[in-house]
Amino acid sequence: MGQLRMTQLIDSFGRVHRDLRVSLTDRCSLRCTYCMPHDFNTWLPSQDLLTSDELIMVIDVATENGITEVRLTGGEPLLRPDIVEIIGRIKTLPNAPELSLTTNGLQLTRYAKAMFDAGLTRVNVSLDTLRAETFVKMTYRDRIADVFNGLDAAKAAGLAPIKINTVLMRGLNDKEAPALLEWALREGFYLRFIEQMPLDAGGIWNRSTMVTSDEIQASLQPFYSLTAIGARGSAPAEEFLINGGPHKVGIIASVSQPFCGACDRLRLTSDGQIRSCLFSKDETDLRKILRDPSHSTASLRVEIAKRFSHTVAAKLAGHGINDPAFIQPPRPMSAIGG
Ligand code: SAM
Ligand code: SF4
């Protein structure tokens, strides 16, 4: 039974923040070109990553202050050897949040069942192509078979729904949208296309080559009739009924149709920084206070709560990708936590 939540995290535009994306590590087993440079190797020192005790303390305080949904992400969250323990501890918090996890799927054969047993019920798996050669071109690793095996393991473990995240890149996989949707429908997965955002830290993002939501819809329409469902609330994906329903496809059009006005998300980086937006220029440090021995548990909890509310209070109206003065964040997506 959850405790009564007394507080909410409300910003100066009246947006109530309920969703916390928690990055468990900046490291990854793939090198998706839209996420990080393929030769990227400036990882955080392992002592800078929050420990499971520190993570649980932060999530406990966040859920006491209005966070109701937690998504574990990275980097690749299944590279954390304590992933199952972290899930189990989150699910037994007094205000246990809705919990989900986004993974590249490579290690689901190893962890899907244990994570389900620890209390995870659903999962998002990122897959951009059904073709082995394209997978190698997009991720610099020859591991598509591990993703398919991982998806089978997720199904067998009972994780549901299984959502698939797909980023389309022009000249690589942009012609695959109908085939990916046909595959997802056949497998019983919910497919969501994500517009490529300027988060690769290497400057490969280019507005003129980015595949837009309009183009994705146009490429699906010869094969499927799409009916916009509307009223997406704070959910990032615009949803469409396929051939009148009941199955759906989603498109997350963060660049061409920003949804900042309804944003309810905060992020915790793996080194303990709170960000109010993927594109924030500022971060609020929790790691330093978490490791300050002069704090009692009670004073630490007060400080963490204060830092969450100050970060939310300072949140800007929008991500500003479409402003002429926009500058890409220096950290890649893998380091911020997607
Ligand atoms: N490694 C895990 C994975 O790939 O699912 C979790 C972390 S990853 C950063 C989370 C999501 O962000 C993935 O679905 C990925 O496709 C997406 N992503 C990464 N870089 C992106 C970018 N530049 N634009 C849009 N989506 C991006
Ligand atoms: Fe790794 Fe996920 Fe980024 Fe791909 S999108 S490089 S799998 S963190």
Task: Give a short synopsis of this structure.
This protein is of the alpha/beta class and 338 residues long. The chain has a single domain, classed as TIM Barrel (Alpha-Beta Barrel), CATH 3.20.20.70. It is 29% helix and 17% strand.
Please render the helix and strand layout as text.
Blueprint: E1 9-10, E2 16-17, E3 19-23, H1 52-64, E4 69-73, H2 83-91, E5 98-103, H3 108-118, E6 123-126, H4 132-139, H5 144-157, E7 162-167, H6 177-187, E8 190-194, H7 213-220, E9 226-228, E10 238-242, E11 248-252, E12 265-268, E13 273-275, E14 284-285, H8 287-290, H9 297-313, H10 333-336
Parallel strand pairs: 3-4, 3-12, 4-5, 5-6, 6-7, 7-8, 8-11
Antiparallel strand pairs: 1-2, 9-10, 10-11, 12-13, 13-14
Helix pairs in contact: 1-2, 1-9, 2-3, 3-5
The chain binds S-adenosylmethionine and iron/sulfur cluster.
Structure description:
There is one protein chain. The protein has 338 residues and is an alpha/beta fold. It has one domain: Aldolase class I (TIM Barrel). Helices cover 29% and strands 17% of the residues. It has 10 helices and 14 strands. The strands form 2 sheets. A 12-stranded mixed β-sheet has the order 9-10-11-8-7-6-5-4-3-12-13-14. The chain has a two-stranded antiparallel ribbon with strand order 1-2. Helix 2 links the parallel strand 4 and strand 5. Helix 1 packs across helix 9 and helix 2 runs parallel beside helix 3. The longest helix has 17 residues. The two termini are 30 Å apart. The relative contact order is 0.17. The mean pLDDT is 92. Bound molecules: S-adenosylmethionine (SAM) and iron/sulfur cluster.
